[in-house]
Amino acid sequence: MTTLMAILMAALVTGTQQHPYLGAFLMIVFGVVSFLVGFKQYRGYRILADAPKARVRSMPMGLVHLQGKATGEPLISPLTGARCFIFTADIEEKVKTRTKSGGTTWEWQTVAGDDDLKEFHLDDGTGRVLVNPGGAEEGINLQRTFYCEIGKDGHFQSVRPTPGMPAPTEQAVWAWIHGAHRRKLVEKKFELEAESIKGIDPVKAKESMIKVLNAMHQIQSLGTAPRMESLGAALEGTSASGLRGGPYHVTEECLLADSDCFILGTCAENPDAKSDEDRNIIRKGENEKTFLISTQGEVKAGRSLRLQAFGLVLLGAALIIGAAALALNAAGLL
């Protein structure tokens, strides 16, 4: 959903001036999508607020609301070496971009990164249940484990380590930036889907999509979703790695092993059960799509969902009104 919305907005930004009617159509489509996503987020907020907590020992099949500790055999995060079950690590680079007036400006853009996740067990003291976090990409809240600003010379300009977490050295961060990261999922999806958009200059569309994903990152940073932006290699003039030399912002976030978290998801029978503890599994449901995993308090997570919902609904309304104005203007009626 995130990628589809970004592609539509990229086409909108690049197509409005060249084809106003196409721009108006895309604005309506994106407005409707924004409305739907906003109402979906609000529904998740209402379900979180209304669903009673269950215990693993007595939980029913279907939608459940659980709280406990994330346990199991963890992953190791790429920068801090944290034991975790989900991690995202992002590289932002300060790059020069063109403005509408033909000038240039410097902006921070997410250009690369790394992420991974694996199944874990939620232990609430009455029992353990297997959790498959796949499918919860738009409903996962993670804990920041490291942040730094690093210059073109490879030296830290600012470091904000998380208390209790080992901070990586300058050399380790620099080496990871220039070779260890591997996430390229969004670029590949864009290359496949953007070609189907007719009448749009591909270079301008890619540049627009970078801006859209950065704006969506700002919306997502209100609460729940890990970032999936990684389009630097698609920009004109970038190197094969998608980087231009820096300076960089580097951020790592994790769902730490043994951390307290709450889960709102669907309890179902596990077809691949290997033990009594794995007979059931918490995952994204086939009918009920709400799936949240958060280390935040439930009040804070609910507030974030509500803010996102209202923001997306307002954005959808603004786009639909703007589409009508654009179409009327192109027809000479405004």
Major sheet characteristics: 6 strands, antiparallel
What is the rounded distance between the termini? 34 Å
Class per helix and strand makeup: alpha+beta
Instruction: Kindly provide the radius of gyration, computed on alpha-carbon positions and rounded to a whole number of angstroms.
Output: 22 Å
Percent range for β-strand residues: 25-35%
- Structure annotation, total helices: 6
Uncertain stretches: 1-5, 184-199, 216-241
Number of strands: 13
Q: Give the overall pLDDT as a whole number.
A: 76
Outline type = flat
Report the order of strands and helices.
HHEEEEEEEEEHHHEEEEH
The proportion of residues forming helix, as a percent range, comes to 25-40%
Describe the 3D structure.
The structure is a single chain. The protein is α+β, with helices and mostly antiparallel strands and 334 residues long. The chain has a domain at 54-184 and 230-296. It has six helices and 13 strands. It has helices spanning 2-18, 20-50, 170-180, 185-194, 202-220, 298-330, and strands at residues 62-71, 75-76, 83-98, 104-117, 120-123, 128-131, 140-141, 143-150, 156-159, 248-256, 260-269, 280-283, 292-294. The strands form two sheets. Strands 2, 3, 4, 8, 9 and 10 form a six-stranded antiparallel β-sheet that branches. Helix 1 (2-18) crosses helix 5 (202-220). The longest helix is centred in the last third of the chain and has 33 residues, at 298-330. It is flat and about 70 Å long. The protein starts with a helix and ends with a helix.
